Amino acid sequence: MKKLFVGGLPYATTSDELKNHFAQAGTVVSAQVIVDKFSGRSKGFGFVEMSSDDEAAKAIEMFNGTDFGGRSLAVNEARPKTEGPRGGRGGDRF
Question: Which fold has domain 2-77?
Answer without folding.
Answer: Alpha-Beta Plaits (3.30.70)
